[in-house]
Design goal:
single chain, 542 residues, 4 domains, Rhopdopsin 7-helix transmembrane proteins, elongated
């Protein structure tokens, strides 16, 4: 979702909360604990604003000002609750609490202006002991506040009937009320103007219309509220002044944060300098804004390339679009290249054995996939390690005694066939959760072909068209090889079949022992061993 979309969604949620609070205020029952429920809703809202500003803004001066804004909103809600809940029967106290409303009314725009000034000044330090000229904006507000609080004496802000009769519902606004309103508007206009003209991010300046939405609502409310034209229900306004101002101010500052006119973080340059990650950020015109010390300087063509770029044999450059530009990072593939070189050396050593020529060709075909699946290759190497060691031992014994070469070569071919076929099945299993029965049959058939080369009857059969869990197929082939190597010294014949949902193995002339945990069933009769291993059904959990 775009920045504008996220901000508009947030404003829509605030609007729903405003409507809910206004509705509760209009229709709430006059019962204790339910009376003035909207006050408690607004109090929770203001406290959430305070927490959000405190947690998401790093710059100390800006954070203090915005936390102060949220605190003043909270104070306003507390004063409102005190006026209507605790001191409603005491007219003098209620009236002066009403006057205290203008503490947040005047200080919220003042702190907003100070927050905007602090954003404009970020990165610049003031002279030690110097008085900040921005603090002078507090003087008019303090003077107006003092006049509001002493209104009973001069009645230049609000004019009442003699004896303050019906003061809460029948009064006139004096010239100082207009001064308060004008001063507040000037401060808010100054706030948005400073943030707009001091913003360095063009994308944020283009979205300045978004925070104008809550501002426009606030302006509309005030223009209708002052002459008494804002609509009401049940004799009460649909959303009183505190609700409208609180949601307007909250929506304004939240949207300014969302679109980036108020920075919620800073120090990106120092972060990139200290980071060991080889990364950099550029704007939409491919101008690099931040670069870490370990990142390479890129040409215009490299920055504009949408595809992965090879900076060196061991370094790849990747790019991803982000809001306002692009992020680039370098990927070190030296370890992958090292593994590939080791695999190539293994292939060369295997090529020296003439009897393993077929295995070498198969491994060359598989190496294209293994280059991108190092983890799968490591698992394969660990699984066939016993057969690899047996091959090495057979080759070594044949070198010492040439008379052993023919028999050893046949055993080497049998072991090599298992290694090749197990690797193929593992690569298929890394891409598919299920394997066809034919894959297991072909692996077994090739192993039995080398058993026939040893002069022993060996047959295989495929009597199933099902697909089985990949791990079950690997386990079945591994068990088949274990039993075949176990029986090799004394067996006279062997038959293997993939039948239904099971692997059936018949071995004549050799006593078999099942590995622990194999899950297979073993029976013997008249010197013949029968092994059955269930393969599961397609779609079953592995």
């Amino acid at each position: 979702m775009t920045t504008a979309g996220k901000t508009l969604r947030m404003l829509f949620q605030l609007a729903l909360l405003y409507v809910f609070a206004a509705s509760v205020s209009v229709f709430e029952p006059d019962v204790f604990l339910l009376r003035k429920t909207a006050t408690f809703i607004l109090l929770a809202y203001s406290l959430m604003l305070l927490t959000y500003f405190a947690e998401h803004i790093i710059a100390r001066d800006t954070r203090r000002c915005l936390v102060g804004v949220a605190g003043l909103i909270t104070l306003w809600i507390v004063l409102r609750g005190a006026k209507y809940i605790a001191f409603e029967e005491s007219e003098r106290l209620a009236r002066h609490i009403w006057y205290l409303y203008y503490v947040p009314v005047l200080l919220i725009p003042t702190l907003s202006l100070l927050a905007a000034i602090s954003v404009a000044r970020r990165g610049r330090k003031s002279a030690a002991g110097a008085v900040d000229p921005a603090l002078l904006s507090l003087l008019p507000g303090a003077l107006l506040l003092a006049l509001v609080l002493t209104n009973d004496a001069h009645q230049l802000v609000f004019r009442f009937h003699p004896g303050f009769a019906h003061w809460d519902s029948d009064y006139e606004r004096g010239p100082l009320y207009v001064a308060v309103l004008v001063w507040t508007v000037l401060l808010l206009v100054g706030t948005v103007s400073i943030l707009y003209f001091c913003c360095r991010v063009s994308a944020s300046r283009r979205l300045v219309w978004v925070p104008m939405l809550p501002t426009a609502f606030g302006a509309l409310y005030l223009s209708l509220y002052a002459p008494g034209l804002w609509p009401g229900v049940n004799g009460a306004l649909f959303g009183e002044l505190p609700e409208a101002v609180c949601f307007t101010v909250g929506g304004l500052w939240m949207s300014l944060l969302y679109i980036g006119l108020i920075p919620s973080n800073e120090g990106y340059g120092k972060l990139f300098e200290a980071s060991s990650l080889a990364a950099q950020i550029a704007d939409r015109d491919y101008r690099v804004i931040y670069r870490s010390a370990s990142a390479a300087r890129l040409s215009a063509e490299q920055l504009a390339s949408e595809a992965t770029v090879a900076l060196s044999p061991d370094t790849r450059l990747h790019r991803k679009r982000v809001s306002g530009g692009y992020v680039y990072w370098q990927d070190d593939i030296a370890e992958l290249n090292r593994v590939n070189e080791e695999l190539a050396e293994v292939g060369e050593r295997l090529a020296e054995e003439v009897e393993l020529l077929r295995l070498e060709n198969e491994l060359k075909e598989a190496r294209v996939q293994i280059d991108t699946k190092t983890r799968v290759y490591d698992e394969i190497a660990a699984s066939v390690l016993p057969q690899s060691r047996k091959i090495a031992a057979l080759c070594a014994s044949a070198e010492g005694d040439p008379a052993l070469f023919p028999a050893n070569a046949k055993l080497v071919c049998l072991l090599a066939a298992y290694i090749k076929r197990y690797a193929n099945l593992s690569l298929l299993a890394s891409e598919h959760s299920e394997l066809a029965a034919e894959e297991l049959y072909l692996a077994i058939a090739e192993s039995l072909r080398y058993v026939r080369d040893m002069g022993l009857p060996a047959e295989s059969a495929l009597e199933s068209e099902a697909a089985f869990p990949a791990k079950s197929v690997l386990a079945a082939y591994a068990l088949f090889e274990t039993l075949l190597e176990q029986a090799a010294p004394s067996m006279r014949a062997v038959h293997a079949a993939v039948r239904g949902n099971a692997l059936k193995l018949t071995v004549e002339g050799a006593a078999l022992t099942l590995p622990r945990g194999s899950g297979a069933a073993l029976s013997e009769e008249d010197g013949v061993s029968y092994v059955s291993l269930g393969l599961g059904k397609a779609g079953e959990a592995e």
